[in-house]
Amino acid sequence: MAKLLSYYRLCPLIDSKSLLGISHDSEKGFVIVTLGRNIVIKYRLSDQKQICSWRTRDKFSSQVLYDKRLEKYVGVFNISFLRIWSNDDENIDKIKKIKFTQQIHSILSHNEETYIFFKDGSLYSLREILENKKNFVPEKFLVDESVHNILYTSVGETLYFGYLIKRRDKYIFHWSKYTNNSKNNFNAMPIQRDRLDLKGYGLHVEKNLVIFLSVWSDGRIYAQHLKDKENYVNSSELFTVIEPISTTHLVKMIDIDENYIGVYGADPNEEGAILLIYNTQFKVNQSKQNHKLYTNDSKIWRIDENIFLPVGQNLVVVPFCLESEQLAALIGSHKPLPSKPDSDVIFVMDFEVGSWQDKIKLGNKLVRKKSLKFSEHKVQEYFKQGLPESLIIEQILPNVLEESNIKLLGESLDFFTDIPEKYLSLILNFILSRDEGEFSPKNKTLALQNLPEELLPLERVALLDKLLIRKYSDVLLLPYLRSDLHLEQAICLLKYITYMLSENGHNLPKLNAVKTEQQIINWASLIIDSNYQKFVLSRDSNIENILVECKNRVTSYLDIVEELKQISPALYRISEEIKGKNCNVGFNNSLYLVEQVSFY
Amino acid sequence: MVHCKIHNVGFYNPDPRAIYFMAIQRESNRLAIARSDASIEIWNLSNVPYIERTIPPDLENFSIEGLCWLDNRLFSIGLHGFLVEYDLYQLLVKDKWVVTGEAATCLDIFKQNLQIAVGTEQGYINIFRITDSGAEFEKFLDKQEGRIVCIKFNTTGEFLVTGSLNAVRIWNINSGHAIHKMQIGRSEANRDTIVWCLEVMADFTIFSGDSRGILTLWDGKVGAQVENYQPHKADITALCISESEDSVYCAGVDPLITNYEKVKVGQSFKWVKSIQRRIHEHDIRAMIYHKNKLYSAGIDSYLACSFHPPKTLVKYPPVMQNQCTEVASNARLILLRHSRHIEIWSLAETESAKPSYRGIVELKTKPKKLVTLQRVNKNWSGEDEGEGIFCSCISTNGQWILISTHSGFRLYTLEIVKEKPKITKIDDLDDCNVPCVQAAFNNKYNQLVVALLDGKIVIYDLEDSQPFISQTIQRKGLLDDTVTFLTVSECGKYLVAGDPNSNIVIWSHIQDGYSIVSKLPKYSVPLTAISVNSLLSTVVVVYADGKIIEYDIKNKCLSSRSRILDRYMPASWKSRTHHVRSITFDPRRPDVILLGDDGNLTVITNDKKSEGNDFEKTPAKVKKANVTNGIDSVVPKVQIVQKYKHLVHLDYLAGDELVVVEMNPLNILKKLPPAFAQKSFGTK
């Protein structure tokens, strides 16, 4: 699951071309924006406040970086010299210059260190240069050729660095691995397809392998593995075909994660730009965002979980979220593309290796023993076919619901561990909409006081409890809840949750009090989330009463939390005193202090 | 070197009492300050400002809404609807007169005509004429709708200027009619603008400050607005003009004090914004400009004195007049006086430490609050409320406690059994219906000495369970003002009393009572602290200008050290901004004098090193003095320890222990209401 969230403006840009770069600051949540050649501004992302800024007389020629090792900022000025300053320095013009005879192309940061790339085609770490400044002469790789662009990525401790050179309409990618004992050991890799233009490129790391991705004007993306000593001719293979982005214009790519890349390019309808997150594992577009304006050859950066891109006169931040990959959630929800058998194979392999193969067998036995109804529903057959649970649910649940087979539903809830969110919401709807008579009253042991009348009989409650203990992803469940759950049902459920929060509430099956509370609170926020609009607009006094009651419950919980907070220092003190530490310390300092001095 | 353990007591945190009004007696440099608990403090500003006398809160005169001086007579008005005159000798309400129109909200005085104008809630302006015996109601002016918020006479006494909701009015006192009504704008259509304060100049230029934060300049002759300025973002509640009338200061809820100066532009004059100072963090309620110094005060309960040049700011904390704390050294108790109650705490016992050890000493026991005592009476609305305290004291052995309030003084015995205090009131005490202004216990002879309001000093014998009056000392010709200092020496032999006029009298205890020993030479400057060193039989007095004298009781003359002390005091001593509040001695080194003022502990010792060799270097006069007295040739050495903030009291406890009571400014700040919130640059 990856999702681009709504974007916000970070700062205005005078000219998007003059934006040199955006980089990490010392702390997370802060970024350094190198603007308009001679201004550096530090922003806090949470409120887009400018924290501080520097302005210089000399022009920057590369983005400013924060060197975590030195705990200082590093900037390149006029292609020829460096300055290193700390956060407290106000005027950086006064900082000592570190001059070089060779021209500096840019600086980059890897593994908390800063590296300097010279226009001659060599890369050195700043530490190395500073340690041996007098004798430092960079190697020369390029003569009369200029670097088109640089690309780099880190795989663990290793830095993969490369630069593109354009030689007679042909691109050549020189790359090298940087480890402790190897550097500037360049391999040349031609980037070439007949009669097609290179529209974009990027490095992507997959399973500790670095792949050079190239986007071509026919909309295809090719991948080339960066491997030492290999004949690169025809080594590239088709990676994917990218459809939602026009490749008549330049395309920008950034590596996000092992399974995701970000792609920015022009809309195929020639209306604005598109930013998308592409899942390289399953070859699907996972999230897409439209922007009104496309800028040709605009730059794009990623810092933590934010993508930065200039849109018109503004620098825009697009936060995104990647949810941890749950294999179970992927099964069924992302059906493998039929045209790509490769990935399908991998997927099945994973499935069979999974340890729950045994569980199924176990489960089958259980089912056989417990309920014959499953066999009727061909569950076993499905299992034999090797279908995942989510698909089985998809097959059997509509029938169960149609027949309103409450008993079977209960058993299914007990049996299946992976029920897709869509069906969770359907089941919820089902449970809450049944008439009282449809439940077979048998269980008299559960005596629940003050239970809302709508929820009677107790069997309904028992079923509901089974549902409420399930694990789910709220992001996935939310839209289904919105569409499937009617307002009355939501109210009913909220009533039940409020009741569970009250002193009459009981523990959910198989969960202890704390976990029950956690689950109930999660559900409460989910329900309020999914029906927020309706709740807000409704003038029904009933809804209001329930919400007020729910609020009262929450407030009383908060009060308790507050009290616990107050108790905690006392407990701490007691524990300290038990340990035998001096109990007078607190009193000594603030209100009463005896000191021995001598004046005469 | 002798070591001492200093007990820094930080739990004396009386509630801050905001300053609401101030009035200056320019001839005698006396500043009357009304605080939120309706107590009045009279500060003497002649030298280092200090509280000369305090009129404690009174349950009947529960509100003060305005203060004014007429020569040495002090008047106030309040929401109770009375014009009140005070007896500054007895520290009581002398007389009061009903004001028509419910609560009185403001007053002003015109000294030449002996007239007081009082503005009221219902819009009546009452004119009183002051006679020798009191005040007489003279007339009303026309009634106006709504409350009169502020009132001022013009300099000729013909006109009155009043401020109220949305208008400033000018009244002709003779006819009683309003001759001009000047409307004031509003910041919002349905929100009244309140004129909080006014100042009138000799040329009948009127300044008004209002709730919009606008300072308006009016021409009183034609009743028209001349100009307005917006120096503040919130209400202007205090305004004052300099004596030369060329400078105006304003401040208020927005506590930035803004100064406007009169500048000559061509033929005419213009008022131009001058310096701004942020002196207080909370609302400023009163400002007075006196002798090139600006006194400002408000909700934060500090009195601030600021002037320029050199840019100086001195702040006087809301510490009550002297002897607000007292140490019962034998019982290891400390009495802390608050505005309406007293607290008694036990002091901590400390772990023993090596004499050479320097630093913080661990506590063996914690200090503990034992008793809170207050005298409750019915207030104006029939509810029980604690009476304001004139004075309180505790005997050295902690056995006796005295509290004096408006309804008299009460004596209690305190017993502490197994850390549980037991208080018993002594019932039949003669003459205890009159409040006493000062009191002290004589521990040696088990006596109580009280200075009553009317001037008598009465001695009670506490020997039996029934205390009785054993002696009454008449002080005619000795003391001519309220007794503000009364102390009994540790040895019980000497009784010393002082008054704000610097009269100091010493009595000594002989078989059948006290008899006068001597009256100290009178110094023109008032004294701020006095103490008896019983081991040397000397009295040490510190005056408001920093002068220290040591008087030898037996020889009836100043000690040799006293004569040369001035020379050895550091240069900065004379330019001190805070008065010496307490004096104490160390019995282990009788020659040591310890002085405490607001921020410093000053130690005066005899420098023994300078004996012999350095003798030649001492100034000629000193040598002479030494020789004539025949006392060992020592020169005083002064050491100043600057480490305290608001040192309230300094006392010797026992053995090697000293007690320092300190009031933490943060604790004052903590108890204040929130200040006017302002966004300052660079913060969030």
TrEMBL record, chain A:
InterPro entries attached to this UniProt entry: NOL11, Nol11_C, NOL11_N
Q: Keyword Nucleus, does the record have it?
A: yes
One MF term in GO for this entry? RNA binding
Q: Give start and end of each Nucleolar protein 11 N-terminal domain.
A: 1-320
Q: Which residues form the Nucleolar protein 11 C-terminal domain?
A: 383-600
| UniProt keywords, alphabetically | Activator, Nucleus, rRNA processing, Transcription, Transcription regulation
Its main subcellular localisation, reduced to a broad class, is nucleus
Gene Ontology CC terms, in alphabetical order: nucleolus
The identity of this protein, by name, is Nucleolar protein 11
From TrEMBL, chain B:
Anaphase-promoting complex subunit 4-like WD40 domain ranges (all copies) = 116-197
Q: Recall the GO molecular function terms of this protein's record.
A: RNA binding
Gene3D superfamilies in the cross-refs = YVTN repeat-like/Quinoprotein amine dehydrogenase (2.130.10.10)
Give the GO terms filed under biological process for this record. Answer: maturation of SSU-rRNA from tricistronic rRNA transcript (SSU-rRNA, 5.8S rRNA, LSU-rRNA)
What the entry lists under InterPro entries is as follows: Apc4-like_WD40_dom, Beta-prop_RSE1/DDB1/CPSF1_2nd, Quinoprotein_ADH-like_sf, UTP4, WD40/YVTN_repeat-like_dom_sf, WD40_rpt
Which ranges carry the RSE1/DDB1/CPSF1 second beta-propeller domain?
405-615
Task: Note the Pfam families from the entry.
Answer: ANAPC4_WD40, Beta-prop_RSE1_2nd
Could you name the Gene Ontology cellular component terms for this entry?
90S preribosome; small-subunit processome; t-UTP complex
The name under which this protein is listed is: U3 small nucleolar RNA-associated protein 4 homolog
Q: Which organism is this entry from?
A: Sitophilus oryzae (Rice weevil)
Lineage of the organism: Eukaryota, Metazoa, Ecdysozoa, Arthropoda, Hexapoda
The protein's gene is named LOC115889982
